[in-house]
Write a structure and sequence with these properties.
The protein has helices at about 10-25, 65-70, 75-90, 110-125, 185-195, 230-240, 255-260, 265-270, 285-295; strands at about 35, 45, 55-60, 95-105, 130-135, 145-155, 170-175, 225, 245-250, 275-280, 295-305, 305-310. It is α+β, with helices and mostly antiparallel strands and about 300 residues long.
């Protein structure tokens, strides 16, 4: 059987419609002049401080259900940090401070373990856990289920000039550690419907999302940065390239080869990272330095096409 994201209850088009509604709603109110509209939408730049600050919020999604089931607190913490950290750097920000929101049925031992892992992981990346909120809401959360969201603030080091992207610029892919934190409603459906024991797989399904902490070192050399999240690699390319296209070749890692037993390649491209968790756009003259610092691969270039060749 071939599965789709919509069959798992997630409609990406419906999500896009809601996002468009919010954007239009904001046009009707008075947005202060200290709010910078960043075209990729990964984070918001606020200029009422010097230097300006960058702000974003995100969560782990339904991958958290498997982290809870298997007690993978370090990976859950890394996922939460990465989903915020990586968005901040997409607009040229350096993450500095983190706030968490924890919604639970009742406070239990596992929440101590998770928050301990979160504090340790943040410290590894020189980000400070400065505040948070924990809410016991048994009317909303079941006995074992809970949810967590993160809010991250960074300083703007350099606004990434996506408007300067030209045809012929190189597209660099930074390898993902796995599925990261997107597409998990579909992955969980496959696991449940197919009766898959995740411990029998030849890769670590729940490994935490890569945190691309070396990317700020190449802020001065890139024209665009895209975090590959909801909507998969296709949406990430569209967010950073906007009215331009691409010719890219991608090499399939083991976890993508596994999932393609259950989904069509087109559905995978609309849902998963296809092996790359972050995409950088740069002039060809800058690529040697970028590759050396980030360990990335040149996977293609900006063009008039929308071609992806899968190897």
């Amino acid at each position: 059987m071939r599965y789709t994201y919509s069959q798992s209850g997630v409609d990406v088009l419906r999500n896009d419609e809601f996002t468009d509604y919010i954007k239009n709603l904001l046009k009707e109110i008075n947005i202060p002049d200290w709010v910078v509209r960043e075209p990729t939408g990964y984070a918001t730049i606020l200029t009422f401080t010097n230097p300006p600050i960058v702000l974003t919020a995100d969560g782990v999604g339904s991958k958290l259900l498997l982290h809870i089931e298997y007690g993978r607190w370090n990976d859950a913490a890394q996922d939460l940090i990465a989903m915020n950290y990586n968005d901040i750097i997409c607009v040229g920000g350096l993450p500095k401070a983190f706030v968490d929101y924890l919604g639970v049925n009742h406070i239990d031992r596992v929440h101590y373990e998770f928050l301990s892992a979160l504090a340790r992981k943040l410290n590894e990346y020189n980000v400070s856990l400065v505040a948070g909120e924990t809410a016991e809401i048994p009317a909303i959360y079941t006995e074992k289920d809970w949810d967590v969201a993160g809010f991250c603030v960074g300083t703007l080091e350099r606004r990434i000039p996506v408007e300067s992207i030209n045809y012929g610029d190189k597209i660099i892919g930074l390898r993902a550690s796995g599925f990261h934190s997107n597409g998990w409603s579909l992955l969980r459906k496959i696991i449940n419907e197919e009766g898959i024991n995740i411990n029998s797989l030849n890769f670590d399904l729940l490994v935490g999302t890569n945190i691309y902490s070396n990317v700020p070192a190449v802020f001065e050399d890139v024209k665009g940065i895209a975090h590959v999240t909801g909507g998969g690699i296709l949406r990430a390319l569209k967010r950073v390239l906007r009215d331009k296209g691409w010719d890219i070749n991608i090499k399939m890692p083991d976890y993508m080869q596994w999932v393609l037993q259950y989904v069509e390649i087109e559905e995978a491209m609309r849902t998963f990272n296809m092996g790359y968790g972050m995409i950088l756009i740069a002039d060809a003259s800058k690529t040697d330095k970028i590759l050396r610092i980030t360990g990335g691969d040149i996977i293609g270039e900006v063009s008039n096409n929308t071609t992806i060749v899968v190897e």
